[in-house]
Amino acid sequence: MGFTVNREISAGGVPVFQQNYENAQGGFTLDTTGLTTGAVVPAGTVMGIDEATRKAKVLKVATLHANAADDAVVYQVKKGHLLIVGDYLAAVVGGKAYAITEIDTTNADYDVLTVGTTLAVALTAGDALFESSATGAAAAAYATVAKGLLFQDTKVGVNEPLAVTIRGTVYERRIPVVTAAIKALLPNIIFSQSF
Q1: Tens digits of per-residue pLDDT, 30-82?
Q2: Helix segments in the chain, DSSP class H
Q3: How far apart are CA 17 and CA 7, in angstroms?
Q4: Cα separation of 77 and 186, whole Å?
Q5: Are 20 and 165 in contact (CB under 8 A)?
Q6: φ/ψ (deg, to 5) at 173
Q7: Which residues contact 6 (CB under 8 A, 6 or more apart)?
Q8: What is the DSSP letter of 146?
Q9: Cβ atoms within 10 Å, residue 129
Q10: CB distance 66 to 92 below 8 Å
Q11: What beta strand segments (E) does the chain contain?
Q12: What is the pTM of this model?
């Protein structure tokens, strides 16, 4: 009698948390407003949570793929963002924000976001763009309610409960970009530079 080795592949990818000390959990559902059904919100995404409504809201961000001049109206961003046409795009908390008028996904390496008026700030590859309010004030309403990071990948349209890590250590290089202003709102999350 011998034994065999069976290989199992997990549904998850590379872990994003080094340590997970505390989750806000128990019945949060994803607020799907402005999200595309079937899209995957990756673990480590900044989330706002409302204890009263039990809703969790995504802070939508994109990482610049290439530098952009201070008069640009088109921005190359890395694939995997959750932004959609109509979202207000900003680069600086309290700065200018304008609606995305077009998203070109035809390039295999990056997407191109077009806005009607420049954001009026020079940007470098790796910088963050984020969904904002129409005026650009305070990184949309989400910046003031950013409470933690999504614990595990969540598919939009699947009405399953989710957990948000509110205290822990995350591999920053494995999660969507988080601005310094948002990090300041998450004092109990350590953003590790380890791989």
Answers
A1: 999 889 999 999 999 999 998 888 899 998 999 999 999 999 999 999 999 99
A2: 142-145, 180-183
A3: 24
A4: 25
A5: yes
A6: -75, -10
A7: none
A8: E
A9: 27
A10: no
A11: 17-30, 40-41, 46-50, 55-58, 61-63, 74-78, 88-90, 97-104, 110-115, 128-132, 146-150, 154-155, 162-171, 189-192
A12: 0.81
Which residues does 132 contact at the CB level (< 8 Å), separation at least 6? 88, 89, 90, 97, 139, 140
Contacts of 61 (CB under 8 A, 6+ apart): 46, 81, 128, 129, 130, 131, 176, 177, 178, 179
pLDDT per position as a tens digit, 77-122: 999 999 999 999 988 877 788 999 999 999 999 999 999 999 999 9
For residue 112, the one-letter residue type is V
List the structure tokens of 59. Answer: 């802070």
* Cross-strand bridge partners of residue 190: 169
